[in-house]
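For practice. Any example?
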Amino acid sequence: MKKRLQQRLPTLLSTLAALAFGGGILYAPEQASQGVRDGLVLCGQVVIPSLFPFLVLSAFLVRSGLAQRAGRLLGPLTQTLFRLPGAAGSAVFMSLIGGYPLGARMTSQLLDAALITAQQARRMLLFCVNSGPAFLISAVGAAMLHSRRAGLLLCASLTASALLIGVFTRFFPAQGKEHLLPARQADQPASSMAGALVEAASQGCAGIVSICVWVILFSCAAALLRLLPLSNAALSLVQCLLEVTSGCAGIAGRAPLPALAFVLGWGGLCVHCQILRDVSRAGLSLPLFFCARAANGLFACLMNALCLHFFPCETAAFSNHVQMLPEAFAASAPVSAGMLFMCALLILEVDGNRKKC
């Protein structure tokens, strides 16, 4: 009886959530429509400009073979720190500079291209889901907290937390010998740089559509949640659990900085839903994935408290006026450095092919 109840519980909860969501749309269609519009604005002004180029770039790195070439440089480091092959280093690097779903997407692409095993992909998904420096420093630090120093401390805390979990995963016991999966026909590297770029653009387009669907859906749900008779503290807690951007905006200036680091390390259910396909593809269990996200938030909180001990930082008190997020994504030194690094690899590859011809 107990086992049957455990098996039916996810279906029951999903049904109740769907009924509640549908009932909320019928009860307050104006609020639901406004939530959808807010989600569309967020996608058009923030999500697509900041993520789409990186999604195309990550797919291009795998399909063109540049990820393998970069692996020759990163191999010793990734093998020493994470017990991973060199090709995985590009995914770890992109996860630290590109934004939440990018590392998981690139991990899945490496798995499909038979560059890593499923076991290695599962370990990577435990620490390759991270917020990018552009969002942390500019959006959260400068726009929400009015302090770039706070954003830098958050960036350092979250990066250290992700790398620490990555180092821990190298000690996970190997579950027997696991061979590389055969590469999917549709995901095998293209024969030319032009072909790789075209197919990477198609993959990036499909990926950004999937991400935007979840952002719009959760934006609609957040608008309906505001109708519930919840206190401001409870509403902020629910927002932090569901969606990281609105959650951070709701507690910025009200909660201590380590609490904000925990929210950013957790990432929100919206981000988790964006990478469910990648988690399922690698065969990673959802309870373990959620535990890793909670551990990432806890480590980020502790790291941030440690950083504040050595580098005290004052943030502005809460204000109803928050700088527009698109403006916050105008520049990012780490992202620019990453783009330059990848462009250099591309130039070397094209030059090598030209000499062979």
The first helix runs from residue 2 to 27. The chain is about 75% helix and 0% strand. The chain has a mean pLDDT of 82.
